[in-house]
Amino acid sequence: MPESSSSSILVAALYKFVELADFRDMRQPLLDLCEARGITGTLLLAREGINGTIAGEPDALRAVLTHLRTDPRLADLEHKESQAPAMPFYRMKVKLKREIVTMGVPDIDPENMAGTYVEPDEWNRLVDDPDTVVVDVRNDYEVGIGSFRGAVNPHTTSFSAFPQWVREQSGEGGVLARGAKVAMFCTGGIRCEKSTAYLRSQGFDQVFHLRGGILKYLETVPEADSRWDGQCFVFDERVSVGHGLAPGEYALCRACRMPLSAEDKLSEHFQEGISCPHCHDRHTPEQKRRFAERQRQVELARERHARHIGARMPSPHHTRDQASPESKSLPTGSEGESMTSAH
Question: Which of 186, 232, 256, 276 is flagged as catalytic?
Answer without folding.
Answer: 186
